[in-house]
Amino acid sequence: MDGSNGSFFIPSFYQPFAFNDKMNETSGGTTMPIAEILTIGTEILLGEIQDTNTAYIARTLKNAGINLYRTQTVGDNVFRISEIIREIHTRADILIITGGLGPTVDDPTRQAVADAFYMPLVFHPECWEEIQTYFQKINRIPPQNNQRQAYLPAQAEPIPNPVGTAPGILLEISGRTVVCLPGVPKEMELLLDSYVLPYLQKRWGMHEIIRTKVLHLSGIGEAQVDELIGKYETLSNPTVGLLAKSGIIDIRVAAKANTPDEADEMINNLIDFSFESSERDSAVGNNDTGVVITSPVGGSVAMIPEDNAILIS
Q1: What average pLDDT does the segment 183-202 reach?
Q2: Nearest to residue 23, comparing CAs of 34, 12, 7, 11?
Q3: Among residues 55, 102, 106, 53, which one has the least CA distance to residue 78?
Q4: Which of 5, 21, 38, 125 is the most buried (most CB within 10 A)?
Q5: Is 233 in the same domain as 194?
Q6: Domain encompassing residue 264
Q7: Residue 185: which of 69, 50, 95, 64 has the closest Cα?
Q8: pLDDT tens-place string over residues 103-140
């Protein structure tokens, strides 16, 4: 590392490879960014608290049309976190990290990000001023250890946090985006919605959204439903997936398009036409031998060859 002019050394072997996937293309054929989520916290691994941040971020990315490929959780260990960050950076365009930005010694995210990209931490006086201002608003004197939160990896930009002491972190490196958000849900949600999502949409030219529709079935097994609609589960857009729960089979249809209306039309067309074809292909005898599942938006979905198979929503 060469600190004399503020630069830092990145080893020549550190080169993220180009990743492409047909499922990651837009309706116009352009490649959309791939995102991953990394949650930090030993207490999550021990089952002491529930990770609600991942679900919130995943829903936000889905609604914005950003493809989420993986989520992971790692404990409060700088070395393990930095290793995973490097690994994710070889394949994901966007990495969103939550947790580990507090003021204590065992809040490792800042150091782990710096180590992952071979750069030092740099003190940001403006962040320290914002932290002091926050404490003044609640009539408290900031402990000295809160100053740790004003140190960010070199080349990173702070994300202002008006409802807490931990600024977020935004780092653009090797053509990819790394975002670190506080683990406190209300702080994470505010920074994600008000700053990070608009930034990602502009940075990556995001103009598409993802819409989903779920049909809930009862009285038939997952394997039987799969036999009826399996050929549609290989589609890239819209996509069709199955989820088996206690006594219920969900058919999820998701579409990516430029507008909600366009996505809804893609979903409804698939339900109205493709699944209706499945009904015709699978029907044996007349309709009295099975149950026609009807979509909430109208149109036949599939012929279920079971007397007790019903659509429950």
Answers
A1: 95
A2: 34
A3: 106
A4: 38
A5: no
A6: 210-311
A7: 50
A8: 999 999 999 999 999 999 999 999 999 999 999 999 99
Query: Is the domain of 174 the same as that of 281?
Result: no
Co-location of 233 and 187 in the same domain: no
> pTM of the full predicted structure?
0.68
Q: Are residues 172 and 260 in the same domain?
A: no
With a cut of 70, say whether residue 14 has pLDDT above it.
no
Say yes or no: 91 and 233 in one domain: no
- The single-letter code of the amino acid at 278 is S
- Burial annotation 42-56 (CB, 10 A radius, 16+ → b, else e): eebeeeeeebebbeb
What is the per-residue DSSP string for the chain? Answer: ---TTS-----TT--PPP---GGGB-TTSPBPPEEEEEEE-HHHHTTSS---HHHHHHHHHHHTTPEEEEEEEE-S-HHHHHHHHHHHHTT-SEEEEES--SSSTT--HHHHHHHHTT--EEE-HHHHHHHHHHHHHTT-PPPGGGGGGGEEETT-EEE--TTSS--EEEEEETTEEEEEE-SSHHHHHHHIIIIIHHHHHHHTT---EEEEEEEEEESS-HHHHHHHHGGGTT-SSSEEEEEEETTEEEEEEEEEESSHHHHHHHHHHIIIIIHHHHHHHH--SSGGGSEEEE-TTSSEEEEE--TT-EE--
Average pLDDT (147-176) is 97
Residue count of the chain, please give it.
Answer: 313
Residue 218 tokens read as: 């009862």
Contact (CB, 8 A) for 304 and 293 = yes
Burial class (CB in 10 A: 0-12, 13-18, 19+), 6: exposed
Residue 240: predicted pLDDT: 86
Same domain, 27 and 128: yes
Q: Where does residue 99 fall: left (phi above 0), alpha (psi -120 to 50 degrees), or beta otherwise? A: left
